[in-house]
Amino acid sequence: QVQLVESGGGLVQTGGSLRLSCTASGSIFRIGSMGWYRQAPGKQRELVATITNSGSANYVDSVKGRFTISRDNAKNTVYLQMDTLKPEDTAVYYCKSVVVDRYYTMRDYWGQGTQVTVSS
Predict the structure, then answer these.
(1) What is the pLDDT of the chain when averaged over all its residues?
(2) Residue 97's pLDDT is what?
(3) Residues in the chain with pLDDT values less than 70
């Protein structure tokens, strides 16, 4: 089994910053791409940013220039640095990782979600 555990959410004022972390653990052979998604109340889950295991990153347009995704492959951890936060960034943030387990089975794993609330 593989588990993803997130941390770092919270309440922040407009213009503030937060840093999310997500660590994968368990029967891991290799981790592929990692990413962050978010879901606001009444809305569908949307992609925020992804990063390959070689460090190539992509962002949704609404966060470009404000959010930075990074990863530490030695720690099986992905980060999301969120700066200049806006009320519309309020959502539950989920990490997702493509993992090949020790049985060489590849599948997506999701974290439990962490709440980010930006007050105006």
Answers:
(1) 97
(2) 98
(3) none
Whole-number Cα distances in Å, 25 to 29, 42, 56, 79 = 10, 31, 22, 15
How many C-beta neighbours within 10 Å does residue 74 have? 6
Label each residue of 89-105 as H, E or C: HCEEEEEEEEEEECCCC
One-letter amino acid for residue 67 of the chain: F
Determine phi and psi for 4, rounding to 5 degrees: -120, 125
Residue pair 30/100 in contact by the 8 Å Cβ criterion: yes
| pLDDT for 16 | 98
Handedness of CA 117, 20, 60, 2 (dihedral sign): negative
